[in-house]
């Protein structure tokens, strides 16, 4: 258990303790003023985001158990890292997520029910990436970090870095996990981002587990320190502290937009649920470890902070619970209403242009189907 | 970041060009036509690429548009995908055929599928240029023909040029295509010369990404080739003509999609078909041609469709590569066998 909790040789940026108390030290000092500027309303907004995301995630897990989804990757426990970094984004910033970034999708204003299409087996994507500057989920580990890097190189060529205009300067952020750091593509993304000084934030949620493999099977050097070898500044933030996650992401995004180049953020967090609904964590991790992290739940610490700072209000909390219930109802209804596409839709959009091979297959399939119609 | 350059003096007129220079001028034209077009690859800047195909282009269009990349093929294609998503038209150079495999995942899993999985919302106008084929006395990994691996992947177009005129037009067509294109360049024929009219596209250069072309008409046997083996096929047809056999030679140009109609129309007339390529015949492009011709020309065939190509071995050492490659004699042998049925 200690191997997973060992923050060897790297400082952790934390602004709120697990008990909900403000804290600071040398590592968090550069970020303290940012968080101090947040009022009760902003902190409540973070709490609201995390509550809604958790409710959505729980609802989706239930839908999988009821047979409505083929699979569900929970983001349970990672709400602070996702909401904090997502709320640091400017509207023009562009996100390249992995497949667990439901919390980031929420901060982009997406209808979270859209995400379920992929996991219900009715669509490989499910949304228009341009609508919320939120790219499609990528299932192959780490591949999308290169797409984000190339996209950021395009942003540079468009002249949208370092203009000084906050409405135009654009950053790109890509999300990936601790397991992904072993992939060649993630390392190549760091190389390309560094040599091009691309406006990119590489946001690693180190949730301690790559399915069943702990950090010790992925690296000997903490993720945050790996940036240095590429010439990319790295920082480890308490990914269960939404204020710290927000402040660290904000600083990294500002650096990217201003032309300061890429940053590697390691959000130190925990996958409280299973890898997916097909996984069984009881085979590889202890109850004691899970309890250690339950005591560091990102929601309870902000609840405690709000209560300590007189920001908690029972009416507001009840309204939020009602809002979460309404979201759950919406997601459940929307999911069950998602129809399977027509079989012939498999021939659509293979190419952007006419393709004789696809057309021949499509025609054959139509004839084949027609035979059954005629036999009736 | 944008660097300004003086207006480009366009290449015009009819010129005698090597195939390599024809691609160079096609790339130059594409860069001049659309400032979203970018070239990316290893050593393509001041060096002009190891085959000099991009010679002079960085000096003319700047480092932001002709980009020397880190030495990482997956990174080249992966970042090209990102640039395409941002509205650019990247043209990646893979230095040699055998070096494309680090990018195989990005090409087959990401590039080929993104249009499909976005239900048409995203288009990926990315070209991947790959010098391919053998016969140049190279060391290991520098002489391979991996086209079938990509043709087997839905979502990709796979094309190859066989002469300078096609090379000039095809590379521009590939760059203009909204679909990802694997553009295979027959490196053994880079220095073949021919006259190219840079201003007027000949009839044969229409539809280069979809259509095969009959490069020599004939009546007795259809010889299907592409890329480096078109030259061989034409020599075979010339040699067979001296023995009184009339061979029709088809240059496929596109491996995916296959222009089955042109091949079938020919075989129905000739009754015989031989397919020749440098890649191993086992599960190769020739197998697909043979299957489709057999299905559609069954009652016209005088002989089974025969294939000539590489063996089911890794590409051998260069001292014996001419025993591996489908040269004149081995193709003539297949022609003889086809007439023997």
From TrEMBL, chain A:
The keyword Lipoprotein does not apply. Transmembrane segments: none annotated. GO terms for molecular function: magnesium ion binding; oxidoreductase activity, acting on the aldehyde or oxo group of donors, disulfide as acceptor. Gene3D superfamilies: 3.40.50.970. This is Pyruvate dehydrogenase E1 component alpha subunit. Residues 48-326 form the Dehydrogenase E1 component domain. NCBIfam families: PDH_E1_alph_x. CDD domains: TPP_E1_PDC_ADC_BCADC. Its cofactor is thiamine diphosphate. The lineage of its organism: Bacteria, Bacillati, Actinomycetota, Actinomycetes, Micrococcales. GO terms for biological process: branched-chain amino acid catabolic process. Keywords: Oxidoreductase, Pyruvate, Thiamine pyrophosphate.
Automatic annotation (TrEMBL), chain B:
Keywords: Oxidoreductase, Pyruvate. Its EC number is 1.2.4.4. It holds the Pfam family Transket_pyr. One of its GO terms (biological process) is response to nutrient. Its cofactor is thiamine diphosphate. One of its GO terms (molecular function) is magnesium ion binding. InterPro entries: THDP-binding, Transketo_C/PFOR_II, Transketolase-like_Pyr-bd, Transketolase_C. Residues 17-192 form the Transketolase-like pyrimidine-binding domain. SMART domains: Transket_pyr (SM00861). This is 3-methyl-2-oxobutanoate dehydrogenase (2-methylpropanoyl-transferring). It is an enzyme of class 1 (oxidoreductase).
